[in-house]
Every structure is written in structure tokens, then in C-alpha cells.
């Protein structure tokens, strides 16, 4: 058991409790104003008034793409994707994905993120990286092309679900524009067979959406709905070009729109209509997207951008309240990923926590803690990141059994080999 | 003398040198690949491959507004300004400004900022706060209203210039919409008398710009130009609604447009036309604006936003190259503030430095250091901030002779008193 005392605790209703929190193994076993007597602790940590929040959930990413960080910025989207990203990705081995995923996990930990919803190939490699580091990850199927690839998806779905308490797997495919219609049918059949939610890139760019309408006479969302893909929920990544009918489908099916504002800005994809979605009741989670298109894995940046871009797009400084944004980045993320036990701080929930340094000047003076997190918070405020009760990052130091200097060295060597080969 | 060795050094042309840098008092006395022999150092610091850059220059801020941080977010602009900001500002004493400015200075230091261009009232109080902390600041005149207030401006201009090596003062007034025409004439006369540049809020919002055109038949920029205010240069803060003729005036007079993207987004003011300005040759610097409208004082956030918003506005992922953005936040900021000796790392220049942690995972692997700073850098990467040769912030600790816990306590007490009185 670990006791965190002298803490400010962000409760499920966003109120604050001055008190303490106890973790027992992977679970939160106590939250209260007073010390709980009669317990034996392996460690007691005086938080000196610092704030415990549910850790951030990065609801869309491609972790291993750290290898392309700052390799090809400031390029038009198509040149970036077809001339830089795809040819280099094709050279990646499973070992590379293992290596580059680890760097992303370290970065998540510095940013108070406990969980990624990770879409990439070679899932064995990224399961290994995440498991070794003790990080929680939900793998998202990433198949594309022919219908028979749905078999691979089904095999992985059965292989990885239940493989470890920290790993789960969701049905998913890359996107409409990389899938045959037969694959969409096959994925719809899997959704029904397993009564399972399905996720994919959806309406990220205007041209993707328009081309889908040209091809099928339907938006991607309406197409997927017609294939039964959303019969048991799920959601879409990006959702920049959802129309009102799409949003109605999202509401009807309880789907999550995972917004990735930094990626959508950096790649000039656009601004997702979050304000409109919220009015209609669409559930919104938040992701960084991969480090090639962002370039950092920082939920503070995503949170500020999400609301800032709505304020600009709506010409209304009151658009998208910061308190809602924090929910998107924490509890909604957990619910989108099917991690109902990781959404808030409460007894019996998983101990996936971040500790925010309130003694940093960007948090002072304090008028509204929640708004401070969203509007002035930064990675530099993360004092601790705890995943399933284990403190993996504390005061700038990783509690991970690995040679991080060697990891960086190897990553730089392999990155150069991949680029030059 | 302080020796920084095993360093990566960002040179004036944005190339990188592996080597060392020596400071002698407030000045950079050596940059080279090899150790300079024959010197006696008070301290030798092994940077382990970390990166020295010129510190960021925050070219527009109202530091003391930390007292309103997160007090009134997510409100329409006019409600925020007239019902929240102005009534509370009216209650501030000089002691309050001293107190709240200190918090901002601490925050600047955590963000690698060495210098602020600070517009507020009670300049004696913020000079005192900055001087005690060893921070470099350029005060900007903030007069408004009647013509006779130009006398106060002139008095302060003569009082504060030369008062300390770390303090200077620029002619300035709040904005067109808070100035009488007679005051504008009087400021124009001062510009001529002292052959001095002049700064002000300029074209921050659409309504400000339109109202000026209604009143004077001219944009703010054209109005100021007609009054001789720009005869010796200067610039404007925000510049969201500059038209082509305004930009031509900026180019002709060598004016700096100081962009504040986070504030312009959060207050729904709009996106400054930086891409168009750059094509025309307008010089651009960058600021955070005050913490009531931002809410944090973080040049990393400003840099990413500046380019991200251009990419969205232009629908072009290649808009506003990250390398240009870094110049705006560093060398252009120094030049805008008249600090020609603080712009780049070179022998004889002032030692205003920031050290960036390259061993943090968000900087790995390394393909392009400059792009990494702009696209994936964060406050959490600031290992050191050095102002005029003095290391004021190092590894999370302030090298400042003050009781910071008491400072926060006092600031919270006064903030509450101001709000409740």
C-alpha cells in the first residue's frame, strides 16, 4: 500500500478534496480527509498540497512514430505522407517498433499520461515495450486492404485481449480510404460476432470525406453505420469533417469522437466541430496522434488547443469550457477505451494517477484549479505518473528498469539507418 | 567566469556547434569547439550534450496580471474585460504589482525567458520586482486618455532609461481606443523629440480596427503613421487585423509586429496574418500577453500555436516554417526591444541563455534540433535560464534570494482580498 497524504484530490465531480489517497496494489483503496488508521504502508508520500488527478488517457496515437519526430516538418500533407512517412515506415522491423515505442512511453509518463490507444503494426512488439515498462495500453486494430485481413484482426483480437491486465485490444481498421468495401463488410461481421466496438480514422481531412462520398454516396460515418460496424459502439479518430447526420449516428450509437487538435493543426487538416458535437451530445475524447504529425505527446498542449481552436472558430471566448476539456482528456478517454475502471479517482478504481505540482509559478495564485490545469498547465507540472498503482515517473526520474541512455543511442542509430537505407 | 562545456550551441545562423561557451560577468566571452586555456572559472558546468539557445524574449506581456490567472476564463471578451479585469485592476496597489510581477518573473525563468517587454502601471513596483530578481525587462509606456498624460510618459522615459543595466523604457501608449487624438499627437511629438520608437496595442480585434476607421477614416496603423508616432520605428502588439497598407507602413518604418497567438485564440480575437506579413517583409516578434488572457507565460506554447494557426488559416502544412518561429521568439524579440546585444549567441553579446534538456524523451531521437524545440519542446525541457550571465534557474530550482512559499501565500491572500473587496 502507498499513502499519498497532504494532497489535493480532484474528485469525480471536479470538486477538490484536501486529504489523502491510498493505493493497494493496482487499485485505489481509500480517499478521505483523514488518515485511515490500521494500515501498513510500503511508502508514505507527503504531497505538500500538490494535486492528484486521474492520469491523462491518450485516446489516439501511433507511438512508434517517434522515429520520424522532426524528420519532415513544414511540408505539404501529401508530400509528407507519401514521400516521407510511408516509405520509411515500410522499412521498420518489429525490433524497431519495440525501440521507438519505448521512447513514446517515456514521453507519456513525463506528461501525466497513463494509457495510450495505440494503432500500429507489429502489435507483439509494442505490447512487449508497454508491458516491460508497466504502461497501460489499448491496442487498436489497424488492418487495411482486402477482406481476408479481417482474419488477422480477429486473431489479434482474441490473442491480445486477456493477455495481461495492462493490455487490451479493440477491433479497428486504418480508414475508409485504405480499406476495400469487402473489408468493411468483414469488420462489420466481426463487430456483430463479438458484440464489440470498432475504431478507425474517420473524416480526418476534407478530401478523404469528399472522396468517400464520391465513391459510396455516403460519408465515412454513414458508410460504416450501414455496414453494421457501429452496432456495438466504438468511435472515430479526428472527426474533423463530421456533418450533422454523422453526429446523429455518433449520438445514437454512443460513439466517441477522438479529437487530435495539434495534429489537425500541424497537418492543416482543419478544426473539428467540437462545439457543435457537444451541443448534439457526441462524446469526445482526446489524443495526440503520432509523433510524426504532432510532434510531441503532450495532453496539456492538446487541451489548450482544443478549446483555443473552438474559441477562434466560433469567434466566442466562452466556447468549449476548460472544465469539459479536462474531462475529455481524462475520464472520457478512459470510457472511450473501454477502461471503465480508470476514469476517475474513487475507491475501487484503478490507481492511474498524475500528481500536478501546484507550487510551480504557472499555477499561482490559485483561483480555479481545473482551469489552471487546462489553461496554464504544462508537462513541467507533472511530479508523478502512476499506472496501476506503480509510480513509474517521479520528480523527473523514471522508475523503469532500462538503460535509457542506451535506448536513445540505439534509437538514433536505427533512425539514421532507416532514413539512409 | 562560468564555463559551459560538452554543450550543443545554437549559433546565429541556426547551425549547431558541439563545444563550449564561457561567460564573463554579463557577457559571452568565448564560444568554440575546444576548451579555452588559461582562464580561471568560478564554475565549470558539464552540459552532457544539452543545448544552449539564446533565451526567449517575451515581447508583449502585462506581468502583474498573474493575480487574475484562472479567475475569469471562458467568458465572452467584453464581459471578461469590463466586468472582471478592469474593476479588479483598479484596486491594485503598487505593493500588489510588486508581488504579482514576481510570480510572473519566476514563471518566465521556468520557461527559458530572460526578458519581458512589460506594459503595466506603477512602473516603480515592477522595476523593483525585476531588479531584485535579476531579470531583464523593458518597460513599455502605457498612457491613455488626455494629452497631458504624455508628460508622465516623458518623465518615465527619462527616469527609467539608464536606471540599471537590466532595465530600459520605451515610449508607448495603451491603444488607439483608449487615447484621445491629442494624446496621439503628443506621443508623436515625443517620438520626434527623442528620435525614439513607440509601441502600443494595435489592431488586436476586429471591432477595435473598425471603430478606428469609423472615427478617423484610417486604420490604427495609418493613424499612428500620420501622427509621426512611427517616425523612429517601434511596433504594435497583436496586429491581428493589419491590412496590406498597414503592412507596407510596418515595412517602411521597420516596425515589429508582436504576435500573441495564445491570447488571440483564448479571447477569440482571431489569427494574425503572419504568413502574409512575412511575405511582405514585416518583422515579427512574439509575446505571451498577460496571464489573465493566456493564462500561462510559456514561449513554447506561443511558438507552436503561431505556426499551427498559420497552417490552419492557410490550409497549408508548409505555412510558417518552424525555424522562422524560433527566430521570432528569440532574436527578433531582442531586436524589437532594442536589445541588440541580446539577440544571438556570439562573443561580446549578453549572456542571456536557456539550456534545453536533450535527454528528455520528447527530444528523442534527434533529426532536427530547431524543429524539435518548436514542435515538441516544452517548459519541461528548460534546465537553466541565465540572465546577464547569472544562472537564475537551474534544474527546477530558483537561484533567487526570496521566500517563494511566502510569496505564493501573500499573493493568494491579496488576490482574495482584491476579489472580495
Helix and strand layout, with pairings?
Two copies of one chain form a homodimer.
Chain A: E1 2-10, E2 16-24, E3 27-32, E4 43-46, E5 51-54, E6 56-61, H1 77-89, H2 94-110, E7 113-118, H3 123-133, E8 136-140, H4 149-160, E9 167-175, H5 181-194, E10 198-202, H6 206-216, H7 220-226, E11 234-238, H8 244-253, E12 256-259, H9 261-266, H10 274-280, E13 283-286, H11 299-314, H12 322-329, H13 331-336, E14 353-356, H14 369-376, E15 382-387, E16 390-394, E17 397-398, H15 404-420
Parallel strand pairs in A: 1-4, 1-5, 6-7, 7-8, 8-9, 9-10, 10-11, 11-12, 12-13
Antiparallel strand pairs in A: 1-2, 2-3, 5-14, 14-15, 15-16, 16-17
Helix pairs in contact in A: 2-3, 2-15, 7-8, 11-12, 12-14
3D architecture notes:
Two copies of one chain form a homodimer. The first copy, chain A, is α/β, with parallel strands linked by helices and 421 residues long. The first copy, chain A, has helices at 77-89, 94-110, 123-133, 149-160, 181-194, 206-216, 220-226, 244-253, 261-266, 274-280, 299-314, 322-329, 331-336, 369-376, 404-420; strands spanning 2-10, 16-24, 27-32, 43-46, 51-54, 56-61, 113-118, 136-140, 167-175, 198-202, 234-238, 256-259, 283-286, 353-356, 382-387, 390-394, 397-398. Chain A has two domains: 2-54 and 342-398, Urease, subunit C, domain 1; 56-336, TIM Barrel. In chain A, 39% of the residues lie in helices and 22% in strands. In chain A, strand 8 (136-140), helix 4 and strand 9 (167-175) form a beta-alpha-beta unit. The model of chain A has no long low-confidence stretch (mean pLDDT 97). At the A-B interface, helix 2, helix 9, helix 11, helix 14 and helix 15 of A face helix 2, helix 9, helix 11, helix 14 and helix 15 of B.
Amino acid at each position: 500500500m502507498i499513502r499519498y497524504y497532504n494532497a489535493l484530490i480532484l474528485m469525480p465531480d471536479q470538486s477538490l478534496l484536501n486529504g489523502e489517497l491510498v493505493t493497494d496494489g493496482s487499485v485505489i483503496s481509500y480517499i478521505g480527509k483523514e488518515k485511515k488508521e490500521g494500515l501498513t504502508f510500503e511508502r508514505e508520500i507527503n504531497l505538500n498540497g500538490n494535486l492528484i488527478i486521474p492520469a491523462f488517457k491518450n485516446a489516439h496515437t501511433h507511438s512508434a512514430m517517434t522515429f520520424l519526430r522532426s524528420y519532415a516538418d513544414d511540408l505539404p500533407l501529401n508530400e509528407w505522407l507519401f514521400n516521407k512517412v510511408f516509405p520509411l515506415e515500410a522499412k521498420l522491423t518489429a525490433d524497431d517498433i519495440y525501440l521507438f515505442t519505448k521512447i513514446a512511453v517515456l514521453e507519456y509518463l513525463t506528461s501525466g499520461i497513463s494509457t495510450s490507444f495505440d494503432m500500429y503494426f507489429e502489435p507483439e512488439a509494442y505490447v512487449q515495450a508497454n508491458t516491460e515498462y508497466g504502461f497501460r495500453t489499448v491496442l487498436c486494430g489497424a488492418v487495411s486492404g482486402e477482406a481476408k485481413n479481417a482474419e488477422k484482426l480477429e486473431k489479434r483480437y482474441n490473442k491480445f485481449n486477456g493477455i495481461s491486465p495492462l493490455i487490451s485490444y479493440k477491433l479497428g481498421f486504418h480508414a475508409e480510404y485504405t480499406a476495400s468495401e469487402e473489408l468493411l463488410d468483414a469488420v462489420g461481421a466481426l463487430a456483430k460476432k463479438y458484440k464489440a466496438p470498432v475504431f478507425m480514422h474517420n473524416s480526418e481531412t476534407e478530401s478523404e470525406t469528399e472522396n468517400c462520398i464520391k465513391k459510396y454516396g455516403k460519408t465515412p460515418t454513414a458508410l460504416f453505420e450501414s455496414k453494421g460496424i457501429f452496432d456495438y459502439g466504438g468511435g472515430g479518430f479526428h472527426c474533423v469533417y463530421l456533418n450533422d447526420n454523422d453526429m446523429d449516428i455518433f449520438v445514437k450509437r454512443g460513439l466517441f469522437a477522438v479529437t487530435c487538435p495539434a495534429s489537425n493543426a500541424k497537418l492543416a487538416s482543419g478544426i473539428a466541430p467540437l462545439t457543435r458535437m457537444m451541443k448534439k451530445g457526441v462524446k469526445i475524447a482526446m489524443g495526440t496522434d503520432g509523433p510524426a504529425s504532432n510532434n510531441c505527446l503532450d495532453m496539456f498542449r492538446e487541451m489548450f488547443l482544443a478549446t483555443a481552436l473552438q474559441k477562434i472558430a466560433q469567434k466566442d471566448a466562452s466556447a468549449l469550457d476548460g472544465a469539459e476539456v479536462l474531462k475529455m482528456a481524462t475520464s472520457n478517454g478512459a470510457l472511450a477505451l473501454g477502461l471503465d475502471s480508470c476514469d476517475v479517482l474513487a475507491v475501487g478504481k484503478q490507481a492511474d494517477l498524475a500528481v500536478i505540482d501546484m507550487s510551480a509559478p504557472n499555477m499561482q495564485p490559485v483561483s480555479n484549479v481545473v482551469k489552471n490545469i487546462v489553461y496554464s498547465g504544462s508537462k513541467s507540472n507533472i511530479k508523478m505518473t502512476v499506472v496501476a498503482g506503480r509510480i513509474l515517473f517521479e520528480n523527473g526520474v523514471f522508475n523503469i528498469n532500462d538503460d535509457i541512455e542506451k535506448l536513445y543511442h540505439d534509437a538514433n542509430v536505427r533512425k539514421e539507418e532507416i532514413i539512409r537505407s
